[in-house]
């Protein structure tokens, strides 16, 4: 069957669509052919696929071929089965007839003959030529067609349709399409069934020795081809997939050693998309096919179908895996294949795939993620070809041009060298080329990196090429290999060479002279080990033989062409990766493009790309990789004179992990930064140095400040600079935690700061801040024209350089400014009264409230009536807080106890300019200030009696002291308070006449009410009497044995004086003393902490030696008693039955003259008449009669008169009766009986019985 | 042989990367590990495509390249383990068990109270245990 292969191929190529045979019975085909072909292809055809599911095929082309056509004639039956796919799928019988008899006799038997072949799917198209206007003809045609239908159509299947040439044909073409489709479907089913049966039979013999893959292939591909013709591409693809599987399964069967293939010319160019690249007869081998060609052929068929299915994505993805797996197969046969065949094939395969898929791919047709995946695969293909291309370039000596980047190193150093059976040897006439290469190698100097960074270049070689190449030469002994490794650092810097045993002597010797010194090697180049240049030249020659593609060959012909192609591939890969998910791949490839741009001095392009790469690495913290790229970026920026960028790059380099660069390199970075910062830059450069300079607050609790206080904030700043660096300025912002949007206030540190590497403590002066808590915000500073800022808050350690992608916000407050609150309290120590007019200690309690009063100044300003006794110092003592219920006594003891404590807690301060400066010890504890003051009062205290009641005036003894305390670090805190102190006399004096003796002697009781909280000891008391009074029997003092008289606080005491009226007093004499003065000599025993106490001066002068008693003076008004009443008024008794409301009574007063007025000069007129007046409360009394009037009273002694007034009491109860007054007579001259006001009882009115109803019990 | 193992944090930042090659070419392995994050990202962001594999931590082969293989493993905390091997015939079960041990070692290392989560793992013990695990797996 394999013999049919060639035929099969031709047949396959000749027919590409479904064939419908036309049996032209009545010579109609020329007439209708045009119409038939006009209605091509079939618009909608429902076919059945391999799994017996209906599939809608649109636009299925059908070729109509007459049965008489040569193409369908003269075929052998065997051929017919074998190439069944080309046989007609439907037979259309074209007939026409207008006469029924003719039909019955001639046409029908003929038709029966035609359709008796069961294998054919057929149907009859009856063509009616009758013109619609010709009724006769139309009728007969109808009859014939009806007969035809009866004869050939069955219930199961309609096999007839009628084409009216002259009539409307709307339904016919649909009918025809349906019928053709039905035929095709049936035929297809039958043929598929047949092929499947055949294939199954063959498959079962698959592992038998007679198995012939070619037969299987023909059947399988025929089936696939049938599907393909019927536009059932999915099914066709599946057949090819199965075919591939089956091939792979059988091709590698052990025992059968087959030729791989790949030796034909142009085999190096991948034919994986060219199904017709080689005729199958060429690749057939025994009973199977050569793997090299056949796999490509199968893939080409598959991809053709996939493109037809509009799935370029799948071509890419299958293509990529195919390239990989095929490359593995090539590796297996590498030793027999031409040199670097694999590499060349992979490059061409990838490029072919890229071209084909890119032209078939249209964005937006498929789902976005498929799109992305497609681009990813394109990128993969590009980078695969790029790797192989680089490998070829390296082999012919363009390795100097390949950047030793991590990407290239990863690609190339893990890719093994080609392993030909024998390494290509140097062609005889290549010595000039060798010299040329040698020169290039020597000239190639490794570009030293900027900043003098010394870095071992990454390897591009999996192992030392020199060794590999020489080992694979048959005639070489490896013994003298080490001598080959001469000092070609320019090219072989990588680790590949590093692993080689490099001898020191070979390093010193120049390569040419050394080789010349061993002429034996030079003479026979086949025997001696090849030198690197020779290897390159040999490889180049070998590649020229391998590569048949001129374009590819050209790209390797010169270093410029190589670079162009390399750049194209890199760009292609990068662009496609950028459009896929694989952004990292894209960006890294951008870096490779940048390297090329850099080499060609397109620094701006290079800088752009490098920037992207750096951003990628920096963003994710891949510092090792960043350290590789960043110096390149910096160099670009320096060349471009982008000072800001360059400085930023230097700072970034500095902020990388310290282990990545040597300290020398780091110092170079720093010096660059400093140089540029101090150079002539127009604009200041802002820069974020968060990863280089970090800061943190000191550990421990935050600094606590009170509102309005300044302070010093010390902050730890970590410098990542390798050397000391001088900052022109440094400032720090604080951010209030409560209010984040408001930028914090900047604290400036003192002018120039030198940051040492590592930890530095910087102290910032802190002006008063608003209340709230603050965290560290930003550190900003300036180095020359560089304005840097750092956001990075470190947790008390050097910056963790790997997390500069997220700034940690400091959460711990560094400063707390409390809300305004009382910081200190000033209060009067004593609330009870002090002695007026005496020097007294006034106590002021100074109570700091969690706030230091260090260096505080108290301004004391006394109000009116109060004076500070300057001559005495101000005493300051520690004040022990006592519980409120403990009382003053405990306070007293604690004060006494306190001297035991080692701390100094009392001293005497001096007042200067009304200011007192606090001592150190008093800064934190409560203290009490004792200020000697004297309250001045000119007023003489007055005693009170029943006649002149004491009018208490609270404000009388009140004095104020205005206090102003300045405290805080800068005396910025001010506390003002005015305290009140109460001053009083020691006693409140009340007098009364206790008894009036017969002899005119009066007993005057003087009651002393202590007003102070201290024991008063009365030593002596005497009266300076006013005129008209004289002392009684004694000298005016109480009996001395009563003294000293102790008056406890709040208690009363009384002293009794006996006085008598001065008889000789004449009314006309001038009065010397208006008032009597009570003098009391007393002592006071009190504590100043409780109230009144001994005067300050008494304390000072020593209490025991010279006691200065205090004298209290109080004015007492003594009234002369009424000794000569002229008139007496007596209230006559009331009736015994009492007074009742409403009952009329008569009030009677008797007025009697006690003295004869005749001798008195004072009396001048109307002596015989007395004016009276009755005063009554009109609410209580109704008075009838004259209330006021004169009554005649004789001037003689003893004359009397009774004044009667009728009154009616109006209210019940004790009421004051009406009183009789004598307005014209001085009160002193009237003696009343009863002497004072009195009350009478008024009974309620009697019950009025007339209103009462007696109640019977 | 395993040439490189790496732990990559959830922000794709390297937490631990150790190469086991004799040559001084760690940087290229850094590159391989870094680029393989693309694949992990893709798988994590397109769970449809990877199907059931996301139900387990083992991500399988990330890179079907000719000369080396990159395997990935993703923990629940989005920490990635990446392993680069030059062995071309590797059984998935071996890799799975390798990663399981690696994961256990990692858990031990980050359970150290002095380890700051998200920071590089500097523990020497971790390095030693990873070295032991790597040495015990020579896949063929």
Strand and helix layout:
The complex is a heterodimer of chains A (1257) and B (140).
Chain A: H1 5-14, E1 18-24, H2 29-38, E2 42-48, E3 54-60, E4 62-66, H3 77-82, E5 90-95, H4 100-115, E6 122-128, H5 135-152, E7 160-164, H6 170-204, H7 213-229, H8 233-251, H9 280-283, E8 284-285, E9 288-289, H10 291-308, H11 312-332, H12 341-360, H13 368-395, H14 406-413, H15 431-443, H16 465-471, H17 495-498, H18 504-508, H19 511-517, H20 519-523, H21 532-546, H22 550-555, H23 559-578, H24 583-599, H25 603-620, H26 623-639, H27 643-655, H28 663-677, E10 685-688, E11 693-697, E12 703-705, E13 711-719, E14 725-727, E15 729-736, E16 746-748, E17 753-755, E18 758-766, E19 772-783, E20 786-790, E21 815-817, E22 824-828, E23 834-835, E24 839-848, E25 857-862, E26 866-868, E27 874-878, H29 887-897, E28 906-909, E29 915-917, E30 927-935, E31 944-945, E32 958-967, E33 973-984, E34 987-996, E35 1001-1010, E36 1015-1024, E37 1029-1031, E38 1045-1047, E39 1052-1061, E40 1076-1085, H30 1096-1101, E41 1110-1116, E42 1127-1131, E43 1139-1140, E44 1145-1153, E45 1169-1175, E46 1181-1184, E47 1188-1192, E48 1200-1209, E49 1213-1215, E50 1219-1221, ...
Parallel strand pairs in A: 1-4, 1-5, 5-6, 6-7, 10-20, 12-21, 23-33, 31-34, 42-51, 43-52
Antiparallel strand pairs in A: 2-3, 8-9, 11-13, 13-18, 14-17, 15-16, 15-19, 19-20, 19-21, 22-24, 24-30, 25-29, 25-32, 26-30, 27-28, 27-30, 32-33, 34-35, 35-39, 36-38, 36-40, 37-39, 40-41, 42-44, 44-48, 45-47, 45-50, 46-48, 49-52
Chain B: E1 2-8, E2 14-19, H1 26-45, H2 47-50, E3 58-64, E4 69-74, E5 80-85, H3 92-110, H4 124-136
Antiparallel strand pairs in B: 1-2, 1-5, 3-4, 4-5
Helix pairs in contact in B: 3-4
Keywords (chain A): Golgi apparatus, Transport
GO biological process, one term (chain A): intra-Golgi vesicle-mediated transport
Protein name (chain A): Trafficking protein particle complex subunit 11 domain-containing protein
């Amino acid at each position: 069957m394999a013999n049919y292969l060639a035929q099969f191929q031709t047949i396959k190529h000749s027919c590409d669509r479904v064939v419908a045979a036309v049996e032209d019975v009545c010579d109609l085909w020329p007439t209708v052919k045009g119409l038939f072909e006009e209605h091509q292809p079939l618009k909608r055809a429902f076919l059945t696929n391999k799994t017996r599911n209906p599939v809608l095929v649109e636009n299925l082309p059908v070729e109509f071929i007459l049965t008489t056509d040569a193409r369908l004639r003269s075929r052998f039956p065997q051929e017919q089965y074998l190439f069944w796919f080309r046989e007609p799928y439907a037979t259309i019988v074209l007939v026409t007839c207008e006469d029924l008899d003719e039909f019955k006799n001639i046409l029908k038997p003929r038709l029966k003959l035609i359709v008796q072949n069961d294998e054919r799917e057929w149907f009859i198209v009856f063509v009616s030529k009758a013109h619609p206007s010709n009724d006769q003809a139309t009728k007969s045609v109808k009859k014939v067609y009806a007969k035809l239908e009866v004869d050939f159509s069955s219930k199961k299947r309609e096999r007839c349709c009628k084409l009216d040439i002259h009539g409307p044909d709307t339904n016919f073409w649909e009918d025809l399409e349906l019928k053709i489709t039905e035929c095709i479907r049936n035929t297809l089913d039958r043929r598929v069934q047949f092929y499947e049966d055949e294939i199954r039979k063959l498959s079962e013999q698959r592992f038998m020795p007679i198995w012939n893959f070619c037969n299987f292939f023909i059947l399988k591909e025929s089936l696939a081809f049938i599907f393909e013709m019927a536009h059932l591409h999915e099914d066709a693809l599946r057949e090819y997939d199965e075919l591939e599987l089956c091939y792979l399964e059988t091709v590698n069967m052990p025992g059968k050693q087959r030729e791989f293939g790949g030796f034909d010319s142009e085999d190096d160019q991948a034919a994986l998309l060219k199904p017709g690249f080689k005729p199958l007869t060429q690749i057939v081998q025994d009973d199977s096919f050569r793997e090299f060609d056949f796999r490509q052929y199968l893939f080409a068929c598959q991809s053709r179908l996939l493109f037809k299915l509009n799935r370029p994505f799948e071509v890419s993805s299958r293509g990529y895996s195919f390239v990989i797996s095929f490359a593995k197969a090539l590796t297996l046969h590498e030793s027999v294949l031409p040199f670097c065949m694999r590499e060349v094939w992979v490059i061409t395969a990838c490029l072919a795939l890229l071209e084909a898929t890119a032209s078939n791919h249209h964005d937006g047709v498929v789902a976005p993620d498929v799109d992305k995946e497609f681009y990813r695969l394109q990128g993969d293909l590009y980078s695969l070809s790029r790797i192989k291309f680089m490998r070829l370039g390296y082999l012919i000596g363009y390795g100097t041009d390949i950047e030793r980047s991590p990407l290239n190193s990863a690609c190339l150093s893990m890719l093994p060298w080609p392993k030909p059976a024998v390494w290509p040897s140097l062609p005889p006439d290549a010595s000039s080329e060798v010299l040329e290469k040698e020169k290039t190698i020597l000239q190639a100097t490794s570009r030293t990196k900027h900043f003098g960074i010394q870095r071992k270049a990454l390897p591009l070689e999996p192992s030392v090429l020199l060794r590999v190449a020489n080992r694979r030469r048959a005639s070489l002994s490896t013994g003298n290999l080490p001598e080959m490794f001469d000092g070609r650092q320019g090219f072989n810097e990588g680790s590949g060479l590093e692993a080689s045993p490099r001898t020191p002597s070979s390093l010193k010797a120049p390569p040419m002279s050394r080789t010349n010194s061993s002429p034996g090697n030079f003479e026979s180049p086949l025997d001696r080990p090849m030198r690197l240049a020779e290897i390159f030249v040999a490889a180049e020659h070998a590649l020229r033989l391998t590569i048949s593609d001129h374009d590819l060959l050209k790209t390797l012909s010169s270093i410029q062409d190589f670079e162009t192609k390399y750049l194209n591939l890199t760009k292609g890969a990068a662009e496609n990766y950028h459009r896929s998910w694989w952004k990292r791949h894209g960006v890294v490839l951008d870096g490779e493009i940048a390297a090329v741009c850099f080499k060609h001095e397109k620094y701006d392009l290079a800088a752009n790309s490098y920037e992207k790469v750096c951003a990628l690495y920096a963003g994710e913290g891949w510092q090792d990789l960043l350290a590789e790229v960043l110096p390149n970026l910096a160099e670009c920026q320096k060349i471009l004179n982008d000072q800001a960028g360059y400085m930023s790059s230097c700072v970034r380099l500095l902020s990388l992990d310290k282990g990545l660069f040597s300290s020398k390199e780091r110092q170079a970075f720093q010096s660059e930064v400093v140089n540029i910062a101090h150079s002539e830059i127009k604009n200041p450069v802002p820069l974020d140095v968060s990863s280089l300079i970090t800061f943190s607050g000191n550990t421990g609790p935050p600094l606590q400040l009170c509102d309005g206080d300044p302070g010093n904030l010390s902050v730890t700043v970590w410098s990542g600079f390798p050397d000391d660096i001088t900052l022109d300025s440094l400032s720090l912002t604080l951010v209030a935690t409560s209010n984040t949007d408001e930028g914090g206030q900047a604290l400036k540190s003192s002018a120039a700061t030198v940051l040492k590497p590592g930890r530095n403590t910087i102290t910032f002066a802190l002006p008063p801040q608003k209340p709230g808590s603050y965290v560290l915000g930003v550190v900003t500073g300036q180095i020359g024209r560089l304005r840097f800022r750092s956001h990075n808050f470190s947790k008390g350690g050097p910056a963790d350089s790997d997390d500069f992608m997220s700034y940690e916000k400091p959460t711990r407050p560094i400063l707390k400014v409390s809300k305004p609150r009382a910081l200190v309290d000033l209060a009067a120590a004593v609330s009870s009264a002090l002695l007026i007019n005496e020097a007294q200690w006034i106590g002021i309690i100074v109570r700091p409230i969690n706030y230091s009063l260090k260096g505080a100044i108290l301004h004391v300003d006394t109000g009116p009536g109060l004076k500070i006794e300057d001559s005495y110092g101000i005493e300051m003592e520690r004040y022990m807080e006592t519980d409120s219920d403990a009382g003053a006594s405990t306070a007293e003891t604690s004060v006494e106890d306190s001297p035991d404590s080692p701390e100094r807690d009392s001293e005497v301060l001096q007042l200067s300019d009304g200011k007192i400066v606090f001592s150190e010890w008093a800064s934190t504890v409560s203290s009490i200030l004792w200020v000697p003051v004297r309250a001045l009062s000119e007023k003489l205290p007055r005693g009170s009696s029943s006649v002149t009641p004491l009018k208490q005036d609270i404000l009388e003894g009140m004095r104020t002291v205005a206090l102003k305390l300045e405290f805080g670090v800068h005396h910025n805190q001010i506390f003002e308070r005015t305290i009140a102190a109460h001053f009083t006399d020691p006693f409140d004096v009340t007098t009364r006449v206790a008894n009036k003796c017969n002899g005119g002697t009066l007993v005057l009781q003087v009651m002393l009410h202590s007003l102070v909280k201290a024991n008063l000891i009365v030593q002596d008391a005497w009266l300076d009497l006013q005129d008209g009074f004289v002392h009684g029997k004694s000298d005016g003092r109480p009996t001395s044995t009563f003294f000293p008289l102790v008056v406890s606080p709040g208690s009363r005491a009384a002293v009794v004086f006996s006085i008598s009226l001065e008889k000789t007093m004449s009314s006309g004499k001038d009065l010397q003393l208006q008032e009597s003065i009570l003098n009391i000599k007393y002592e006071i025993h009190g504590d100043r902490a409780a109230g009144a106490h001994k005067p300050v001066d008494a304390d000072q002068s020593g209490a025991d030696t010279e006691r200065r008693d205090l004298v209290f003076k109080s004015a007492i008004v003594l009234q002369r008693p009424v000794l000569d009443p002229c008139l007496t008024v007596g209230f006559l008794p009331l009736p015994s039955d009492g007074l009742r409301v409403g009952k009329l009574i008569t009030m009677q007063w008797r007025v009697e003259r006690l003295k004869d007025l005749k001798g008195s000069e004072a009396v001048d007129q109307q002596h015989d008449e007395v004016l009276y007046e009755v005063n009554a409360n009109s609410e209580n009394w109704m008075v009838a009669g004259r209330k006021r009037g004169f009554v005649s009273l004789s001037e003689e002694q003893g004359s009397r008169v009774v004044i009667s007034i009728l009154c009616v009491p109006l209210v019940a109860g004790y009421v004051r009766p009406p009183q009789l007054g004598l307005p014209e007579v001085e009160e002193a001259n009237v003696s009343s009986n009863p002497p004072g006001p009195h009350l009478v009882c008024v009974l309620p009115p009697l019950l009025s019985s007339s209103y009462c109803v007696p109640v019977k019990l | 042989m395993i040439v490189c193992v790496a732990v990559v944090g959830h922000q794709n930042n390297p937490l631990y990367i150790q190469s086991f090659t004799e040559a001084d070419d760690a940087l290229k392995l850094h590159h391989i590990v870094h680029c393989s994050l693309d694949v992990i990202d893709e798988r994590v962001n397109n769970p449809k495509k990877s199907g059931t594999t996301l139900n387990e931590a083992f991500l399988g082969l990330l890179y079907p390249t000719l000369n080396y293989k990159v395997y990935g493993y993703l923990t629940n905390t989005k920490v990635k383990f990446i392993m680069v091997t030059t062995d071309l015939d590797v059984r998935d079960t071996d890799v799975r068990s390798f990663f399981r041990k690696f994961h256990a070692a990692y858990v031990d290392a980050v359970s150290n109270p002095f380890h700051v989560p998200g920071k590089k793992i500097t523990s020497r013990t971790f390095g030693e245990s990873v070295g032991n695990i790597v040495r015990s797996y020579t896949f063929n």
